[in-house]
Write a structure and sequence with these properties.
By secondary structure, the protein is an alpha/beta fold. It is built from twelve helices and nine strands. It has two domains: about 210 residues, Spore Coat Polysaccharide Biosynthesis Protein SpsA, Chain A; about 80 residues, no CATH class.
């Protein structure tokens, strides 16, 4: 693959050291690495100089853009100034298994398919997977999906690493997040909006990607608003409506779960919406199922637990 790797970085040189080590340990990896420092207060040059065998370029932003905007900036800088078939966004607090790129290479060679987008399931436990497991077609844990199937996976909460993906630069010509409409969920619409219905998406279902905690550096949800949640679900539903099937009738089960789970993130933001108002908005937009809301509600669960104990 004619691949570039862009890594947005900020104040975590100790984690970047491990991230770069995971790239150095790849069985198959030939890529220029572009680091975009978001005006860190910590020094990175010592770490970078210890990886002189890798092709690393370093650029420091004049001011702090924030995690999501630096991710957007990193993609566009590399895309505009270089000619690569694929561009990967990797984060300094993530790791990839030594067979990560070899697995992709094997899958593409065996299937003769050139993916429009490559995504990966992730794990929070790093395992040094054995190359022998992916050396034959039987051991290649992956699936090919289209745009609608990808939306279904998003709604079902499959463990997909959204922010870290490998983009076909013929399909993804510009990285542009719509923060006003989607807030910190903007990476999902970006992944979907540039895809055509017949584009092929490769999903690595074997967790060769290790997603580490953002620790104290995690301020992703500080600008998240209720409307961002409902706008994202409206996008999902508009895509699913193009192909009504048996699964489509169940989508409110998953939208209800997503709305409830997202409330926890919104509480970390400056909005802190009233729970009743938030739920009411979900009903008005027909994105919440009363049945699944009751099944998830902890008060209902506690009530029946009380009745059982009393009897």
């Amino acid at each position: 693959m004619n691949l570039a790797t862009a890594i947005p970085i900020y104040n975590q040189p100790h984690l970047l050291k491990e991230c770069l080590a995971s790239l150095r340990n790849q069985i198959s990896f030939q890529s220029n690495i572009f680091l975009f420092d978001d005006a860190s207060t910590l020094e990175y040059q010592t770490v970078i100089s210890s990886f002189s065998d890798l092709k690393i370029s370093y650029k420091r932003n004049l001011s702090n853009l924030g995690a999501m905007r630096n991710m957007e900036h990193s993609f566009n800088e590399v895309r505009a100034k270089n000619d690569y078939d694929y561009l990967m966004i990797l984060h300094e607090d993530d790791l990839v298994s030594p067979i990560y790129f070899k697995a992709i290479e094997n899958i593409c060679e065996l299937t003769k398919i050139k993916p429009s987008l490559i995504l990966s399931f992730f794990s929070d436990t790093f395992k040094d997977n054995n190359y022998e497991q992916i050396s034959s077609n039987k051991g290649l844990s992956h699936k090919w999906v289209n745009k609608i199937q990808l939306v279904e996976m998003f709604l079902k909460g499959e463990p997909i690493a959204f922010g870290s993906a490998i983009y076909n630069t013929e399909v993804y010509t510009e990285y542009k997040f719509d923060f006003e409409k989607y807030g910190e969920f903007s990476d999902r619409p970006f992944l979907l909006n540039q895809l055509n219905e017949d584009d092929t998406i490769l999903i690595l279902t074997k967790p060769l990607y290790f997603l580490r905690s953002h620790l104290g550096n995690d301020d992703r949800w500080k600008l998240l608003k209720s409307i961002h949640v409902f706008n994202l679900l409206s996008l999902y539903i508009s895509i699913l409506k193009k192909e009504k099937n048996s699964w489509f009738s169940q989508y409110r089960k998953y939208t209800t779960t997503f709305i409830m789970d997202s409330y926890l993130n919104i509480k970390l933001s400056g909005e802190r919406p009233n729970f009743i108002v938030y739920i009411s908005m979900g009903f008005l937009k027909r994105q919440i199922s009363l049945k699944y809301l009751l099944l998830r509600n902890s008060f209902i669960n506690r009530f029946f637990t009380y009745l059982l104990k009393s009897s």
